[in-house]
């Protein structure tokens, strides 16, 4: 079997593809898998680290509104389509899978027009433009949130959940905390604003670090590579400084499974992949949906968890108020609430999504 997987831009589109690829390899060790990504996406770095080959094409997202950048984006879209077409022609896949991001548009479309079976995976409760368009061409549509079903042709939709990497499920809290020398007897908060970081979240967390230290609360603070230096300068942070005992600031964490396994509470954006990992481990969450994403889909994702008692949602415009600090301190000190949130979160978990997608693959290439 030969499989092409395409998706990228952020870790949220890449890691589900990696999870599916590893499940396929587990079941079919002789299978050949090729990733196709964009030249500017994180997939260029993340996919090879996971042990898979990747080829890159020139493509960028098309904005709904016509701007000065529109002609350039259209030209790149056509260029990306022909590059993808040539890669597909050379690799001769049995199936092509798109896991989100604008890069999978030309890849999945080219494969579908060649008569190759295709699957797209929609991770969000409110679908993006790329998948809405591709849904008319693709063979099957796998969804993470049942709320997204109404946006697609019903005869193609299969509810699978969001694929998560197997190592996420095999964490050990004591071992994970040992990586960063965290105390096992003190609460630990993990803050992650997505693979690119989130400036407003970073600034808000920086402001409350003195309160966390005062209340014996530990912090693993993942800033994103672009904002790490600014945060370190702002706080005058040094790992060896005793004033910051229990506070660890990192630009990026590749072993996210250990960060998730170590924490008692997570503060994060509401991308579909991080939410799938949160629920898989039953982690109580404070979610701050990004207001800068297409169709405000992160708010739909976050509300799905809050309505089920698994998370507290805070709007980004509330970060500068005391609401943010008060919610954190109140939650950390409320063990009964944390227990209920953890239980409710676990009820939402779908941990066999990769297996379900493998079954769709097997059906399509029989």
TrEMBL record:
Membrane-crossing ranges are none
What does the record say about its membrane topology?
Peripheral membrane protein
Protein name as it appears in the record: UDP-N-acetylglucosamine--N-acetylmuramyl-(pentapeptide) pyrophosphoryl-undecaprenol N-acetylglucosamine transferase
- Which gene codes for it? murG
Instruction: Tell me where in or outside the cell this protein is found.
Output: Cell membrane
| UniProt xrefs under InterPro entries | GlcNAc_MurG, Glyco_trans_28_C, GlycoTrans_28_N
Residues in domain Glycosyltransferase family 28 N-terminal? 3-142
Q: Which domain of life is it from?
A: Bacteria
Instruction: Provide the GO MF annotations for this entry.
Output: UDP-N-acetyl-D-glucosamine:N-acetylmuramoyl-L-alanyl-D-glutamyl-meso-2,6-diaminopimelyl-D-alanyl-D-alanine-diphosphoundecaprenol 4-beta-N-acetylglucosaminlytransferase activity; undecaprenyldiphospho-muramoylpentapeptide beta-N-acetylglucosaminyltransferase activity
Is Cell wall biogenesis/degradation included in the keywords of this UniProt record? yes
Instruction: Give, as one word, the top-level EC class.
Output: transferase
Glycosyl transferase family 28 C-terminal domain residues are 189-355
Purpose: Cell wall formation. Catalyzes the transfer of a GlcNAc subunit on undecaprenyl-pyrophosphoryl-MurNAc-pentapeptide (lipid intermediate I) to form undecaprenyl-pyrophosphoryl-MurNAc-(pentapeptide)GlcNAc (lipid intermediate II).
Family the UniProt entry places it in: Belongs to the glycosyltransferase 28 family. MurG subfamily.
Residues annotated as binding UDP-N-acetyl-alpha-D-glucosamine: 10-12, 124, 165, 195, 253, 298
Q: What are the entry keywords?
A: Cell cycle, Cell division, Cell membrane, Cell shape, Cell wall biogenesis/degradation, Glycosyltransferase, Membrane, Peptidoglycan synthesis, Transferase
Q: Which GO terms describe its cellular component?
A: plasma membrane
Pathway annotation from the record: Cell wall biogenesis; peptidoglycan biosynthesis
In short, the EC number is 2.4.1.227
Q: Name one GO biological process term.
A: regulation of cell shape
Task: Cite the source lineage.
Answer: Bacteria, Bacillati, Bacillota, Clostridia, Eubacteriales
């Amino acid at each position: 079997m030969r499989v092409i997987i395409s998706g990228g831009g952020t870790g949220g589109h890449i890691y589900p593809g990696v999870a599916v690829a590893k499940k396929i390899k587990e079941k079919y060790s002789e299978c050949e898998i090729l990733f196709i990504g964009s030249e500017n996406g994180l997939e260029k770095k993340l996919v090879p680290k996971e042990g898979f080959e990747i080829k890159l094409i020139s493509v960028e997202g098309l904005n709904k509104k016509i701007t000065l950048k529109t002609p350039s984006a259209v030209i790149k879209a056509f260029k990306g389509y022909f590059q993808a077409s040539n890669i597909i022609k050379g690799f001769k896949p049995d199936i092509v899978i798109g896991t989100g991001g604008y890069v999978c548009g030309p890849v999945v479309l080219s494969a579908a027009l060649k008569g190759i079976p295709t699957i797209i995976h929609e991770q969000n409760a409110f679908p993006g433009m790329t998948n809405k368009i591709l849904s008319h061409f693709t063979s099957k549509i796998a969804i993470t949130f049942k709320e997204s079903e109404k946006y697609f042709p019903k005869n193609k939709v299969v509810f699978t959940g969001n694929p998560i990497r197997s190592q996420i499920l095999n964490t050990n809290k004591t071992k994970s905390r040992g990586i960063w020398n965290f105390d096992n007897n003190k609460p630990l908060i993990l803050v992650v604003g997505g693979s690119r970081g989130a400036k407003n979240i970073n600034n808000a967390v920086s402001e409350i670090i003195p309160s966390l230290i005062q209340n014996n609360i530990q912090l693993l603070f993942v800033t994103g590579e672009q904002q790490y230096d600014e945060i370190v300068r702002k706080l005058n942070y040094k790992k060896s400084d005793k004033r910051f005992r229990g506070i660890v600031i990192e630009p990026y964490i590749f072993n996210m499974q250990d960060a998730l396994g170590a924490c008692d509470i997570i503060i994060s954006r509401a991308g579909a992949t991080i939410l799938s990992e949160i629920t898989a481990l039953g982690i109580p969450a404070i979610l701050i949906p990004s207001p800068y994403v297409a169709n405000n889909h992160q708010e739909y994702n976050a509300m799905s968890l809050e309505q089920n008692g698994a998370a507290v949602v805070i709007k980004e415009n509330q970060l500068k108020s005391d609401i943010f600090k008060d919610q954190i301190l109140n939650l950390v000190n409320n063990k009964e609430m944390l227990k209920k949130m953890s239980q409710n979160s676990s009820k939402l978990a779908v941990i066999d999504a990769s297996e379900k997608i493998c079954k769709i693959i097997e059906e399509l290439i029989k």
